[in-house]
Amino acid sequence: MNKQQRIAEENVLLLNLWQQSQAGDSLAFCQLADKQYRTLFNYATNFTSDREFIKDSIQELLIHIWEKRQTIHIQFVSIYFLKALRNQLLQEFRRNNPANSLLDIDEVGQISDYQTVETEIEQSEIYSENQIKVRSAINELPRRQKEVVFLKYFEGMDNEQIADLMQVNRQSVANLLFKAINSLKTHIRAVTSLILIFVVNG
Which one of 28, 94, 141, 146 counts the least CB within 10 Å of its CB? Predict the structure, then answer.
């Protein structure tokens, strides 16, 4: 079973929990929230290093989704939750910066705790000899490149889904991925296997 098949199967399970949640099953929603929490938290670290702010934002988001569950239509659970969190974070940053209502998300704080990347690297034997180099190289990428790397290679999204989530066109996603891969090639000499994975999944 390849990664895309695993993601599809996982989405079926998440959709089942979501449907139970819509019917008022709070336990199912708690299970759904638990399954999404780590991904949401790690994704949010692309925008801010304030862990307490991230936790509060996720809690507010989950409460909002639970309260509005009967009016929300979801096809891909993880994508919906990530997009909702991204929009909420943007609104918070703009609310806290009234002088610049069009705040560019690239101006938001840099990542400081990319735990998903670290965890994935540690769990995968293919990275075993290059953990530090790979982690360091990814952390040095510009924020938007880190974001697309996270979404594509750790969340398994395709370019169209990433474009929808980030509210850019598909070509912009492809350009960001291309720049990220080239940067990783420059910084890491001994990760041919990593680059091959990126190309195969590209």
Answer: 94
Q: Which two tokens stand for residue 3?
A: 């990664």
Encoding tokens for residue 131?
């953990």
**Contacts of residue 67, Cβ cutoff 8 Å, sequence gap at least 6:** none
Cα torsion 172, 198, 37, 121 to 10°: value is -140
Task: State residue 100's pLDDT score.
Answer: 41
Q: Contact at 8 Å (CB) between 177 and 148?
A: yes
Task: Report the C-alpha gap between 156 and 162 in whole angstroms.
Answer: 10
- With CA atoms as reference, report the closest residue to 81 among 157, 169, 175: 157
Least confident of 56-65, 106-115, 129-138, 176-185: 106-115
- What is the reported pTM? 0.66
Count of beta carbons in the 10 Å neighbourhood of residue 93: 18
